[in-house]
Amino acid sequence: QEVRWCPGCGDYAILKSVQRTLADVGALPESTVFISGIGCSSRFPYYMNAYGFHTIHGRAPAVATGLKLTNPGLDVWVVTGDGDGLSIGGNHLLHTLRRNVGLKVLLFNNEIYGLTKGQYSPTSRPGTRSPTSPLGSTDTPLCAGLFALGAGARFIARAIDTDKTGLGQVLKEAHGYNGTAFVEIFQNCIVYNDEVFASFTGRPNAVDAQIHVKHGAPLVFGKGGSKGLRFDSQRMLLEVIDAGRHGDEILRHDETSPVIAQLLLSMQPPEFPMALGVIRRQLAESFEDQFHAGYPPGLARTARVQDVINSKNTWRVGV
């Protein structure tokens, strides 16, 4: 189907990265499913050479959970946005994350409602002017990564829509994870919230405003890795230090540590760089594996609806 997003929309770059990733990992169209809710990002299933559901607002995680439980062998992706996933769909997303269902959740965060013409969203910053906040939003914005961490997500990653290398690597890591892989993608809405992430995505700012994390590697950034992050145990905070002078004090990334994940996810420019890459990864049994392991042996796992209706385990309710 013809791709129908606004010219210059960041969704185009994400679409290409996902298509490239699936080709690289050898994903089969007949065993791949994309499920979405409502919003600009939710047109995604139409543009993939795979099966898909374009469901109702916020309910994509619920539909995807049912599909994964029914057919665990499928490679199921959920595509949502900051409005669809964190507002009306927040409840469904929360329980998907805590259950660790084997889904890959891509949350396109542009800090605005795009499809409905630019209303402020749960991730919009204070002061955001929109049709529903003409004097500026007074809401406290929700941090998608911290939301996921608080919900018990075992895999949390971040990437930028136009960062082909970084996004591609994160998508491959998410694809290989057995459980809920939550990926927040900073996506530029060129019409209603253009350059909202320019403080860390713009060319002049990127080198000092981004930190690409890797398990076991020192947390350094800046030109030539000139800056680093040190943990201040007195204040229980991170601080930026000169990597050349204090190299032995630089903190190393640990994907298994929820404390480091919280510290990294809490960082915001300009005081700190934006953390990108796989921030949290903890091995855990998936929800569908636990579910099917506890299934009574010998019990039929498939049945036609009509057979169930005609079975003996039915009764008539008098009026």
Keywords summarizing the entry:
11 helices; 319 residues; eight-stranded mixed beta sheet; single chain; Rossmann fold; 29% helix; globular; alpha/beta; three-stranded antiparallel beta sheet
Computed Rg:
21 Å
Biggest sheet descriptor: 8 strands, mixed
CATH superfamily of the domain at 11-196: Thiamin diphosphate (ThDP)-binding fold, Pyr/PP domains
Number of helices: 11
- Quaternary class: single chain
What distance lies between the first and last C-alpha atoms, to the nearest angstrom?
A: 50 Å
Strand content: 15-25%
Strand order of the largest sheet: 2-1-3-4-6-5-11-7
Gross geometry: globular
Number of strands: 11
Overall helicity: 25-40%
Structural class from helices and strands? alpha/beta
Low-confidence stretches: none
Average pLDDT for all residues: 94
Secondary-structure element pattern, one letter each: HEEHEHHEHEHEHHEEEEHEHH
What fold name goes in the CATH topology slot of the domain at 11-196? Rossmann fold
- Assigned CATH class of the domain at 11-196: Alpha Beta
CATH architecture field of the domain at 11-196: 3-Layer(aba) Sandwich
